[in-house]
UniProtKB/TrEMBL annotation:
The keyword Kinase applies. Coiled coil: none annotated. It comes from Mangrovibacterium diazotrophicum. Keywords: ATP-binding, Kinase, Nucleotide-binding, Transferase. One of its GO terms (molecular function) is kinase activity. This is YegS/Rv2252/BmrU family lipid kinase. The keyword Cytoplasm does not apply. It comes from the Bacteria. InterPro entries: ATP-NAD_kinase_N, Diacylglycerol_kinase_cat_dom, Lipid_Phosphate_FormReg, NAD/diacylglycerol_kinase_sf, YegS/DAGK_C. PROSITE patterns: DAGK. It holds the Pfam family DAGK_cat. Residues 7-137 form the DAGKc domain. One of its GO terms (cellular component) is plasma membrane. Gene3D superfamilies: 2.60.200.40, Probable inorganic polyphosphate/atp-NAD kinase, domain 1.
Length: 300
């Protein structure tokens, strides 16, 4: 906790997910303490348990008034901390130590732990948009319904860790996928289409580096609905390549709609994921942009 002798030094609260990804965190506190002497800040810690973390973290922040809060983990940890800091003046820093680190990648935060800590403590701050999903959930970068959400659900149920396990599950899902009939209301425009997946993209890429929304920006007051319509088997290789060359939006079976609000209905319930975490199965999904709602720390 901060005291009188270091009250002029910034108070940084590190929110650490001890089980995220395949990354060992045994020496993490040692690195933070060493950097705190070098960069002149006062570290504090909250370790997630999966038991009402959002409420407990809110209480810690109210009691300690940190200058910055740093999410140490993957996208799920970033989402939880970001939701607590929504519309607050306290910046969110990120140290990417999860299975997928899409938000960190989007913000240009390096995977080197000490570099990321340095940026979280002394980087510049800026406001970004977030997405409200089904009224009660917040998305920082990407949410979806369809293939990817189903893979993440399987990923969680089988307790698989790491990008290789995810890639194997995804490849299997591509071959087994069946299109969903979507009825969409996008900024008042009614659209009906069959698709394997609908992505609600505030940002541009997944933690794997797959670029699903090349024109996505975190601060433009809009988000994109990206539809992956039925494709031929021969298109699979081209699709996989285009994910990593930044031109997926140019493929004939991909539709992109830029909007501020979208409502999507399905004929039956399907799995929905938000920032890499499954939130349940839904027949209806509503998504709305929350402009400039979160302060984040970026590299200088």
């Amino acid at each position: 906790m901060p005291n009188d002798t270091n009250k002029l030094q910034p108070h940084i609260l590190f929110v650490i997910n001890p089980i995220s990804g395949d990354v060992q965190k045994d020496d993490l506190e040692l690195k933070i303490r060493r950097l705190s002497m070098e960069l002149q800040f006062v570290p504090d810690y909250y370790f997630t348990t999966g038991d009402n973390d959002e409420h407990k973290l809110t209480a810690v922040i109210e009691a300690t008034s940190p200058d910055r809060v740093v999410a140490v983990g993957g996208d799920g940890t970033c989402n939880m901390v970001g939701k607590v800091l929504l519309y607050e003046d306290i910046p969110l820093g990120i140290v990417p130590l999860g299975s997928a680190n899409g938000m960190a990648r989007e913000l240009g935060i390096p995977t080197d732990t000490e570099e990321a800590i340095s940026i979280a403590v002394s980087g510049r701050v800026d406001l970004i948009d977030t997405l409200q999903v089904n009224q009660s959930h917040m998305s920082l970068h990407l949410s979806d319904i369809g293939i990817n959400a189903a893979v993440i659900e399987r990923f969680e149920k089988e307790n698989i860790r790491g990008l290789w396990g995810y890639a194997r599950q995804y490849a299997k899902a591509l071959f087994e996928a069946r299109p969903i009939r979507f009825t969409m209301d996008i900024d008042g425009q009614r659209i009906r289409k069959r698709a394997y997946m609908a992505v609600f993209a505030n940002a541009s890429m997944y933690g794997t580096g797959a670029v699903v929304n090349p024109k996505g920006k975190l601060n433009d007051g809009k988000f994109e609905v990206v539809l992956f319509r039925p494709y031929r088997f021969a298109h699979l290789l081209g699709m996989l390549v285009s994910f990593f060359t930044g031109n997926i939006h140019e493929q004939e079976y991909v539709d992109v709609y830029s909007c501020r609000k979208a409502e999507i209905r399905n004929s039956r319930k399907h799995v929905v994921q938000v920032d890499g975490e499954v939130i349940g199965q839904f027949e209806e999904v509503s998504v709305e942009i929350l402009p400039r709602s979160l302060t984040v720390v970026l590299p200088k």
